[in-house]
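Protocol step 4 of 6: structure prediction from sequence.
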Amino acid sequence: MDKLNIAVVATKPFDGQRPGTSGLRKKTRVFMQPCYVENFVQSVFNAVRETDAPAGFEQETLVVGGDGRYFNREAIQTIIRMAAANGWGRVLVGRGGILSTPAVSATIRRRKATGGLVLSASHNPGGINEDFGIKYNIRNGGPAPESVTERIYAETQKITEYRTVEHTDIDLEKEGSVALGATEVVVIDSLADYTAVMEELFDFKQLYALFQSGFRMLFDAMSAVTGPYARSILEERLGAPRGTVINGTPLEDFGGHHPDPNMVHAHELVERMSASDAPDFGAACDGDGDRNLILGRGFFVTPGDSLAIIADHAPRVIPGYRAGLKGVARSMPTSTAVDRVAESLGITCYETPTGWKFFGNLLDAGLCTMCGEESFGTGSDHVREKDGLWAVLCWLSILAATRKSVKEVVEEHWQRFGRSYYQRHDYEALEAAPAAEMIAELREQLSFLKGTSIGESTVASADDFSYTDPVDGSTSTHQGLRIFLEDGSRIVFRLSGTGTEGATLRIYLERFAQDGGTSDIEQVLAPLARDVRALLKLNERFKREEPTVIT
């Protein structure tokens, strides 16, 4: 064992290093400042040691990987040196520095690791002038809860030194072990643990037969992390034709893409799925692999409908769920489609605030099996993150079992359960202070809205959503403003903090109808959208007459 030269480096706190459950996200150049990554990583180690490893890290395992964006490799080398200096027993690193977010979760769980560091800014752009992020996941494989992130933040505010070692870079392209003093650094197959979990859940033979029958699909990895996973599973294991996966090589800037799988940013896939010779099925995943887009020929499946349809079919068509579902959960802004499926199955549907941590408690307690959110995230109890490729395999299983088109599956669902006509309107890069002031003003008006008119509709009730966790009893307040109309419509308002510039106002519009889904969604929701813009005075405040993105 080589003796390491451990350096204890003096440092000072940086402002603004408070992580959320999505981690710490800033512009890449912020992370590239001297000591910035080191301060945050040391603060993570200090916080984790305090509660999870009071005897030290000698017997503990850390998983490290990211989505391949710019600065990914440099940050990983820094983390490896610091892990060795802090005495971690093992560090498992994805080959090439690559591990999707659900793969990190799978690896932590399968290898019983203490936790993991995910290097990603999710669906946000990558590059030296774009976004970067670091997130800590705990022993269950899920994002650190608020109790942990607040301890990390407290450490960032008082840090005076960090520990590192003098050592050359580890070869991340070669699988195998390297000793850094007492620390074993293992470069692992990025695909192995995740693929093993998928094999346990799905009938790969059935899916192979589907592709051998002439079934065609198109998967857009958006030049991000799911490319290697999709090529391995879809093309090599399931027999999909070469070329099924497009934009399959992870690039530091995602090839100039904005790796957010929606109808705007996944335009190449959308165009090809709208062509006369379109494949049977289309899908895309985001930068770190935890979000998904589902398409048929010229047909878009909303995330809320996708969750509901997966929950309805899974016990019948996916081996991993044949024992039935314990329950389902959705974030509050997500459409109520899955509520009706839960009722038909005789199981509970939990309505939670936005944030995957709330699902984690329910999953760990065995209260729910599947969960999802309107921002293209769907998952189950196989990991503790949302999982884009898992959702794609769920849909392939449904199509293989029913031998129907995507459109036919969805329309049959609407015939049985009715349809939630639903859209999310994003107003991006608003000035943060005026946006916060606008929401504060609306919050103050909520108690006076009942009985008033919004356009031609009358307000039945309005509130500021709060949630009491059924597992730990914790209460979360101010989770989104809701307006319920007498005609059954629902409007939700939230300011999102997942970006790195300004504020994003998200407005969620939902109108339920038992009409077989035959109405035109634009005609159904356009009047409601117009009335909401007027209510908020968006044009007067921000000169915005239309949203940046509609999903």
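Step 5 (inspection) to follow. Residues 419-550 form a domain with the TATA-Binding Protein fold (CATH 3.30.310.50).
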